[in-house]
Amino acid sequence: MKSPILPAVIPAGLHSATLPINIIDDRKVESTEYLNLQIDGGYGDSTIYPVNSDSVAVITIEDNDSSYTRLCIPNVFTPNGDGRNDLFVIRGLENYPGSRLSVYNLLRGGALVYRSENYDNSWDGRGASPGLYSYILEVNESGRRKIYRGKLVIIK
Length: 156
Fold this sequence. Notes:
Number of strands: 8
Largest sheet: 6 strands, mixed
Distance between the termini: 49 Å
Structural class: mainly beta
């Protein structure tokens, strides 16, 4: 069932408003999430302020799962043995024991090249040649599973 669209009103003299947003499935986190926003225009002191294609709206969406550390998942790493960026390190992962990481080669039909049932930031790119990959990281958070998906470039 689709929720009704309710208008948001920004009172005269103010330039912003807080809008409630209901997340339908907070267990999945994609690398990019989208919000559809339609701005119709505004009135003030008998002056019309048109909103057109040149108008800009800034929207900040905060995750309310504040009891957990945010993960920082890189989109490139260079396992070439030079001592820099040689491991696929996900910052904040130490706060999510038992995380599962799967890496797939997108240039070879999505073939699985790496899997760890308890990933510990130790993958050195073994089994993967330079190229484009995708990853799926599954973490446990307050007894529920969250899934992170994204692209990964390996440069050797």
